[in-house]
Amino acid sequence: MIKLHDLYFKTFISEQELDATVQRMVDEIANDLQDEIPVFVGILNGSFMFVSDFVKKYPKPCEVTFIKLASYEGLKSTEDIQRLIGLTQDLSGRKVIILEDIIDSGNTLEEVHRIFKNEHVDELKIATLFAKPESYKKDFKLHYVGKEIPNKFIVGYGLDYNGLGRDLPAVYQLKTTQHMTNIVLFGPPGAGKGTQAEFLKDKYNLVHISTGDVFRYNIKNETALGMLAKSFMDKGELVPDQVTIDMLNAEVEKNAGAKGFIFDGFPRTNAQAKALDNLMDAKDSQIDAMIALEVDDEVLVGRLLERGKTSGRKDDADESIIRNRIIEYYNKTAILKDYYAAQYKYYGVDGVGSIDDITERLNAVIDKL
Ligand code: IMP
Ligand code: MG
Hints:
This protein is of the alpha/beta class. The protein contains eleven helices and 15 strands. The chain has helices at 15-33, 48-57, 107-116, 193-204, 211-220, 224-234, 241-254, 270-282, 297-311, 319-341, 355-368; strands at 2-4, 7-13, 39-44, 63-73, 76-85, 95-103, 123-131, 144-148, 154-155, 171-174, 183-186, 207-210, 261-264, 289-294, 346-350. The longest helix is centred in the C-terminal third of the chain and has 23 residues, at 319-341. The site of inosinic acid (IMP) has 19 residues, from strand 4, strand 6, helix 3 and strand 9.
C-alpha cells in the first residue's frame, strides 16, 4: 500500500502484468501495420512511460511524437480540455496511432479527434493501455485496449494523483475505504482486556467490537442474524462462522467512517482468522496486529478471585474453574498466535503492572504499526 498526498492506494497491476500487456498490444499493432512506418503519437503527460516501453518493444521502424493535453483535476475528469502542446509536424498521408495511458470519460479522446480533423492523415487509430468502460461516454472506436478496468481511480506507470505517482513502475488503485488500524485484542480472563480496550478506543478513535456483546445485541433485538444464530444455539450447535462474520460485517458497516476496529473475542480458530482477513480485504483493509496481554497464571487467579468477591460472577469465585478457563484460553489461542506470528503481526504485551503502564505499552505497539 502507498500514500500520495492524503489518499491511500493499494497494489493493482504488477510490473510483470504491465509488461505483458504492452507486449500484447505491440504484437497486435505490429501485425496489423505490417511494413508501413507508423507515427505513434503519445498524449502527455500520462502516456510517457507507456509510450517509452511500447516503442522499445516495437519490432520495426516507427516515428514517435507527442501532444500535450490536460483535463484532470485531482480525482475528476473535466469537460474542459486544455491543449498545451499541439501537433508540431505534418502528418498528412501517414498512419497515425494514438498512444493513450487511459481513456475514462472520452473527453480527451474527443479533443484528439478534433486536433486530427483537418490533418488529412491516411489512418487514425486509437490504442490505450487502460480503458474504463463504465465511464466512457463517447462513440469513438477504441482500436486497441490493453486492459479494461473498473471505474476506480488509479496511479502509477505515468498516471498521477495531483502530480504524484507518475514515477511508480506498477499501478495502484485508490482504496475505497481509507486507512484503518485494526487490532485483534487477546488476553486470558483477568488480563484487563476490557479496561485497556476502553483506553485504546478513545486514544485512537477505534470502534471496540466485542463478539459477545454483538451476539447479545443481535439476539436481544431479534435481528435476522440474531434469530439465525439463536436457532443454532437452541439446538445446542455452534453458530457457523459465516453467521458471526455477517454480524461483524454489519458492525463494521455501521461504523463506516471509523479509524479502525478492536476485535475482542474473535477470531478463535484459524478458519475464523481467515474469514476475518477476507472480511477486511473486502473492505480494502487489513488486520494490522494481534495484541495479546500476557499475564502470569498466578496473577490472573489472584485478580479473578478478587473480582469474584464483588462481581457476583460465579465463574470468578471458584479457583479450579478459573484455572480451567485460563488453560482453555492458552489451548485455544496458541494456534492463533502462530497464525498471526506467521504474518509478523503477533505482539505480546506484558500485562502486569499499573493500568497506566500497561496502556503505555499498548500505545507503544500501536504507534509503531
Ligand atoms: P478522459 O478525458 O476522461 O477520458 O480522461 C483521460 C485522461 O484523464 C487520462 O489521459 C488521464 O490523464 C486522466 N485519467 C483518467 N482516469 C485516470 C485515473 O484513474 N488516474 C489518473 N489519471 C486518470
Ligand atoms: Mg493522459
